[in-house]
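Why does residue order matter? Because the sequence determines the fold. Keep that principle in mind as you read this record.
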Amino acid sequence: MSNKNQANQNTFISHLSELRSRLLKSFIFLIISFIICYFFSEEIYKFLVKPYSDAVLENNLDRRLIFTALHEAFLTYLKVAFFASFFITSPIFISQIWKFVAPGLYRNEKRAIMPFLLATPLLFMLGAAMVYYVVIPLAWEFFLSFEVAGGEGALPIEVEPRISEYLSLVMRLMFAFGVSFELPVILLLLVRAGIVTADDLAGKRKYAILLAFIAAAILTPPDVISQVMLAVPVIILYEISIIGARIIGRPPESDDD
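Structure:
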């Protein structure tokens, strides 16, 4: 009995060592990517600022981004570098976790999980791309519409965003949309595991719609445009998840299992 416990303990320790090794490799990739991204942080920041500069030019405005603390620009570039390195290395983290988990799975389980594994970074990038190319331009147009030209007895109201605030807003939007676009992966995995069914998802549709708008109100700025543009895709993805759940259902149990 003691030999069996010792063997189990050795196996557990070896698994922990392997997990530590894979996570260490991932963090090394993250650090290397962070250093490289920092050298290009100014170009990356210009890329993130482009929707705002385009909105300013289209409205024939003369605006600028400012920083009010001596260290603010430096810290902003550090955030930009980490933000970019996170996007670059996230597939590496996922692949390392998969390599750790995969040996303990059956072949049919690997085939079932692989599509979800591939879809995870793609859906996250799709959500981030929607923010950059669709949501942010519309939101910036909306915010700039509140500027007021000065007149007799009135001072002008002009926007001059801080670079750190601008970056925080962009990152929060990209992260919120990226995570929200993972909804089909989460729901279909639950269906695969037999925890929920397509009928369960369809029956909870009204609650899902309500939660989508609540989450959009929390995760996005307090404007209707970005809130609706997050809630509507999430609702559409929920409906797609229901269709996918009806197609895949729960895989039948085989005699081998």
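The chain has a mean pLDDT of 80.
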